[in-house]
Design a protein that fits this description.
- The chain is α/β, with parallel strands linked by helices.
- 42% of the residues lie in helices and 19% in strands.
- It is built from 10 helices and 10 strands.
- The protein has helices at residues 4-15, 24-37, 43-52, 54-65, 75-89, 107-116, 134-142, 155-161, 173-176, 209-222; strands at 98-101, 127-131, 144-146, 162-165, 168-171, 179-183, 195-200, 223-231, 245-249, 252-255.
- The strands form 2 sheets. It has a 7-stranded mixed sheet with strand order 6-2-1-7-8-10-9. Strands 3-5-4 form a 3-stranded antiparallel sheet.
- Strand 4 (162-165) and strand 5 (168-171) form a beta hairpin.
- The protein is globular and about 55 Å long.
- The model has no long low-confidence stretch (mean pLDDT 95).
- Bound molecules: S-adenosylmethionine.
Length: 256
């Protein structure tokens, strides 16, 4: 389909989303299937609809941002976080400042609160959670989840922090209160500073190598001394020393 270059510029103007930073083949394939689903056959015509019809716009943003998530995704890595990584951080500090970058519908930051509750009292836990997708953040704040998405939550935590509600499970206010949500574009906005633990999982896979390099540099700068970046299970960093990060154990990198 013709017209992708102009479409990227138009989308940037309309949404602030820079599609040139996302892997092109994958992105084009996704957008074109969405265009066809709307029974349209050009980028130009589709963009007109995006501008004028809220439903088409919301569908576009939702579809592109792929919000798939679950609690305790890759459980063994969360175990390593609690058993090894945080105790290592605590050798040089008493509390840790934590950021969940690309938090989707809340599963990851709420998992962080529950995992850290094994170490700290809840009142000492505060997580910053950000995502580009406002709808996902709204869902996170509501905090209703399917049985499947909470399948990996350890039984004691499930009992303590989830209340069955029809076919769903509602996360407790005690957990919710520990998380502050914000809309944030990891490709554009200024990163906050001084984080001892940054969790950024299953989002880098969508970005070009140049975009990734910039993000790793930004994460390095956002970490405190010897702070740790926790990445997704297919997102190991190639030559992390380029960003002054050292592998600590698989999926965890420490600022030099
Ligand atoms: C597959 S989910 C990952 C959720 C969670 N981190 C996990 O591992 O389960 C990817 C998330 O990245 C978000 N995202 C995509 N591009 C982004 C950007 N430029 N800035 C911030 N978030 C972004 C999407 O909205 C989506 O919620």
């Amino acid at each position: 389909m013709q017209g992708y270059e102009q479409f990227k510029k138009n989308v940037l103007g309309l949404t602030g989303l820079d599609l040139t930073m996302y892997k092109e083949r994958q992105m084009k394939r996704r957008i074109e299937s969405l265009i066809k689903r709307n029974k349209i056959d050009s980028y130009e015509e589709y963009f007109k609809k995006l501008k004028s019809e809220k439903e088409v716009f919301d569908e576009f943003m939702n579809y592109l941002t792929i919000n798939v998530s679950e609690f305790f995704r890759n459980p063994e890595q969360w175990e390593a976080l609690v058993k090894d990584v945080v105790p290592e951080l605590l050798k040089t500090r008493k509390k840790i400042k934590v950021w969940s970058a690309a938090c989707s519908t809340g599963e990851e930051p709420y998992t962080l609160v529950m995992a850290l509750s094994r170490i700290f009292p809840l009142s000492d836990i505060k997580i910053l959670a950000v995502d580009i997708d406002k709808e996902a953040i709204n869902k996170a704040k509501i905090g209703l989840y399917t049985e499947k998405s909470i399948a990996n939550v350890p039984d004691d935590l499930k009992k303590k922090y989830f209340e069955p509600l029809g076919k769903t499970y509602k996360i407790s206010e005690q957990i919710k209160n520990r998380v502050e949500f914000k809309q944030f574009n990891l490709l554009k906005d200024t990163y906050p500073k001084g984080y001892d633990l940054i969790v950024c999982r299953n989002v880098m896979i969508y970005f070009t190598d140049e975009a990734k390099d910039q993000m790793y540099q930004n994460f390095h700068d956002a970490l405190s001394d010897s702070g740790v970046l926790f990445v997704g299970s297919t997102e190991q960093i190639i030559s992390p020393q380029r960003f002054e990060l050292s592998p600590m154990r698989t999926f965890f990198y420490q600022r030099d």
